[in-house]
Amino acid sequence: MYNPREINLSKDTTIEQAMESGKIQILILDGKEGTAHVLEAPEHGETVIQTIKGGLSRLDYRIGHKF
Questions:
Q1: Distance (Å, whole) CA 33 – CA 54
Q2: Going by C-beta distance under 8 Å and a sequence separation of 6 or more, which residues neighbour residue 56?
Q3: Angstrom distances, CA of residue 4 to CA of 38, 49, 51, 62, 66
Q4: Per-residue pLDDT reduced to its tens digit, 23-48
Q5: 34 or 11: whose pLDDT is higher?
Q6: 56 and 28 in contact (C-beta within 8 Å)?
Q7: pLDDT tier at 17, thresholds 50, 70, 90
Q8: What number of H helices and E strands is found in the chain?
């Protein structure tokens, strides 16, 4: 669920990705590698995108539960 998956891009950066109703999705466009990734945001928490030398390095999640 929290692992990004690569999506297809055409040369003019058209994105063909269906939005999922009721979900927040994060789209990462990596111009350095020429790739794009989409991932689901946690219901309660934070998503931290880390880079090293201008490239995508890792994603960290801080997930909580609301009472």
A1: 10
A2: 28, 30, 32, 33, 37, 49
A3: 5, 11, 15, 16, 24
A4: 888 888 888 888 888 888 888 889 99
A5: 34
A6: yes
A7: confident
A8: 0, 5
Residues sharing a CB contact under 8 Å with residue 11, sequence separation 6 or more, in sequence order: none
Q: Which residues contact 22 (CB under 8 A, 6 or more apart)?
A: none
CA-to-CA dists, residue 15 to 19, 35, 41, 63, angstroms: 11, 11, 19, 28
- The domain limits of the chain are 5-14+25-63
> What type of residue sits at position 34?
G
The two three-digit tokens of residue 59, written as one number: 């994603």
